Amino acid sequence: MSLPFGSVPGYLPGSTSLVEQLDRPVLLILRDSRHILGVLRSFDQFCNVLIEQSKERRFCWTNENGKHPVYTDVEEGATVIKGDQIVIMGEVDNLEAESMGVGGKLKKVPLKEFNRIMERVDEGEEKKRGKCWDFDTDLNN
After folding, report:
1. What is the predicted pLDDT for the residue at 106?
2. Residue 55, φ and ψ in degrees, nearest 5
3. Structural domain includes residue 123
4. Is residue 113, in this structure, part of any structural domain at all?
5. What does the pLDDT look like over 100-131, one tens digit per residue?
């Protein structure tokens, strides 16, 4: 059985089914909970992927002082991601948050402001916990 040139069958097993997402914007959620947005340019039989125009989207869900949860994008350029690190990958309309249904709930901030917010959150968490427990030193005593 042969297929006409350029046609893609409705079902392709394994990583070959990614051919339909080539040259389209995708969102990847990785095992370390990072969110990567970019354009899928290539893949192999192990689901290793090459993402162009990639950016890591970072979230801060804290609602301190009545502020809305915030996010920022860190530009990364071309990125190769190992297939065993990908938890889920899906196609998105475009790479902006407004198109992903979060525009009204999240506020985009510059990276410097995001880092300042995260520092305040980290300091607040340490104050809540009191003395921080250090696994290595506390077990040795």
Report:
1. 76
2. -145, 145
3. yes
4. yes
5. 545 567 788 899 998 988 888 777 665 555 44
80-108 burial by CB neighbour count: b if 16+ within 10 A, else e?
A: ebeeebbeebeeeeebebeeeeeeeebeb
Half-sphere exposure of 18 (CA within 13 A, CB side): 25
Which amino acid, one-letter code, is at 88? I
* CB proximity list for 129: less than 8 A, separation 6 or greater: none
**Residue 59 corresponds to which tokens in the numbers above?**
């979230």
Question: Residue 31 belongs to what H/E stretch?
Answer: none
> Which CATH number fits the domain that encloses residue 92?
2.30.30.100
What is the rounded distance in angstroms from the CA atom of residue 77 to the CA atom of residue 89?
Answer: 18
